[in-house]
Design goal:
four-stranded mixed β-sheet; 13 helices; binds shikimate-3-phosphate; UDP-n-acetylglucosamine1-carboxyvinyl-transferase, Chain; alpha+beta
Length: 444
């Protein structure tokens, strides 16, 4: 059992209220992970600001410290990383604990496959159930040797000292983690490593590699790298995480009279599916002050309360909103009419089975929510109170917290400690801007 599993935090949300204010949510998780990884492998000192001081990104930082990388911070979002170059990592003394973080585990597996030393990656109960063959199989084709548990799950044992060979790989699922894993392994491979995704996914790895002076190859749906180059240290300003902003965006949409502005949010087009989906539902959302910060588009997002209508969610938006469905399901429950999601079977292998867990929770609140193998059908209508099991999944906990704005009675949410993996301080910020949320620490 990990540190996080040992804590039990319970949220209680009193019904009603609305959201108001101008504020910034914590740094982007995907970009924070990548900044540490590329900073560690670069020549020179990388300075990061806006770093997410949540357990997931800290697990990545700890892993590089354990492999001999000198770091300063985090201190108010600032981290300094003394890069050791592509071949400067040292063997860790023991297994590297990735906690709850799938991104840390899958990206590090690619990177570690190219090292001269052996390494072992472990995770908490949730991560230890998540599928890893999606990375170990293509890595094996490159010549990597990675052992999994019998079901293809962690722990992962990665044998060092292998000569990797570039491959061309057509991914069976739209996954930025798989793509990034292979590109990182590709830095160490002979020749070129190419990946094709069935649909566009977040491209932070590609953007950041270029920001570190590493050429990224592309041709019609394929992206690639040539092994043996050099990364040059860089400065990275991490924007606020649109995946964290999404809870407040949905909260403001569903609570009449709400008016919020979320500052400095990353609006990379591979991440803004949630804005497109909510706009199709009739949301009142405006992007202001659009700008580019360190190779990533950023904007302030203004949201007013409005009435939403149910829609058929276009499948092409699914990978672009993959982490936001817990929040989107709450919006659907508050909309007039029926919302149908298909093509989202990936939700079943996130930190929890987000189709099953969200459907159970919505039903507990009296909402007509029917899970399907690859999505959900939700009929909007009045929502009562009730008790929610978040299954230790941060995004389930935050989504149901926002549901309180439209519930008829109190919502009690169990097992919320993992909110700190992506959004430290969520409950304080939420209460400050209008959610009637209290937090209890309950002995495990
Ligand atoms: C991430 C990719 C997505 C996402 C995860 C972060 C990343 O996972 O769900 O939270 O940083 O690359 P998949 O690539 O498995 O879809």
């Amino acid at each position: 059992m990990s540190r996080i599993d040992a804590n039990t935090i319970r949220y209680t949300v009193s019904p009603g209220g609305s959201l108001h204010g101008r504020f910034r949510v914590p740094g982007d998780k995907s970009i924070s992970h990548r900044a540490v990884m590329l900073g560690a492998l670069a020549e020179g000192v990388t300075r990061i600001s806006g770093f997410l001081e949540g357990a997931d990104a800290l697990a990545t930082l700890d892993a590089f410290r354990a492999m001999g990388v000198q770091t300063r911070g985090p201190d108010a979002g600032r981290v300094e990383i003394q890069g050791v170059g592509l071949h400067g990592l040292r063997a860790p003394d023991g297994p590297l604990d990735m906690g709850n973080s799938g991104t840390s585990m899958r990206l590090l597996t690619g990177l570690l496959a190219g090292q001269a030393f052996d390494a072992e990656l472990t995770g908490d109960t949730s991560l230890s159930r998540r599928p890893m063959r999606r990375v170990t199989e293509p890595l094996a084709r490159m010549g990597a040797v990675v052992e999994t548990a019998a079901e293809g799950t962690p722990p992962l044992r990665i044998r060092g000292g292998q000569r990797l060979q570039g491959i061309r790989y057509e991914m069976p699922m739209a996954s930025a983690q798989v793509k990034s894993c292979l590109l990182l392994a590709g830095l160490y491979a002979q020749g070129e490593t190419w990946v094709r995704e069935p649909a566009p996914t977040r491209d932070h790895t590609e953007r950041m590699l270029q920001g570190f002076g590493y050429p990224v190859l592309s041709e019609e749906g394929w992206v690639g790298v040539s092994g043996g180059g050099t990364l040059r240290a860089s400065s990275i300003d991490v924007p606020a995480d649109i995946s964290s902003a999404a809870f407040f965006i949905v909260g403001a949409c569903i609570a009449p009279g709400s008016e919020i502005v979320l500052e400095h949010v990353g609006v990379n087009p591979t991440r803004t599916g949630v804005l497109d989906i909510l706009s199709l539902m009739g949301a009142d959302i405006e992007l202001r002050n659009r700008r580019e910060v360190g190779g990533e588009p950023v904007a302030d997002i203004r949201v007013h309360g409005s009435s939403l209508r149910g829609i058929q969610i276009p499948e092409r938006l699914v990978p672009l909103a993959i982490d936001e469905f817990p929040a989107i399901f709450i919006a659907a429950a508050c909309a007039e009419g029926t919302t149908v999601l298909t093509g989202a079977e990936e939700l079943r292998v996130k930190e929890s089975d987000r189709i099953a867990v969200m459907a159970d929770g919505l039903q507990a609140l009296g909402v007509a929510a029917e899970p399907t193998p690859d999505g959900m059908v939700i009929r909007g209508g009045p929502m009562g109170g009730g008790r929610i099991n978040s299954h230790h999944d941060h995004r389930i906990a935050m989504a149901f917290a926002m549901a309180g704005l439209r519930a008829g009675d109190a919502i009690v949410i169990d097992d919320c400690a993992n909110v700190s993996t992506s959004f430290p301080g969520f409950h304080r910020l939420a209460a400050e801007v209008g959610l009637q949320l209290t937090v209890d620490e309950v002995p495990a």
